[in-house]
From TrEMBL:
Keywords: Membrane, Transmembrane, Transmembrane helix
Species: Bacillus norwichensis
Transmembrane segments: 60-79
Name of the protein in question: DUF4231 domain-containing protein
Top-rank taxon, per record: Bacteria
Amino acid sequence: MTEFLKAPEKLELMQETKQRRQFQFTIYENHKKQLFHMTMFGLTGAAAGIYLSNLLILKLFIALSAFSIAGYTMTSYKLKKWMKYMHKKR
């Protein structure tokens, strides 16, 4: 009888946990998208630097691309690790 009475609380807790997981996943995915866009912007800027024969622009945008690629790689690794952890928790 007590289990039956506690069922709504358990259901609410499960729903809250699911929403938190979905929120965390969305944060990781959005961060990856932003870093991907930054990488594309950096590569486009580097191409513009080559086209304009401007070494400063080229170096700045190559550095931006390198940092965003590193961030994308780290975020992808964290997401993959988090997904493994979440899978085990279920």
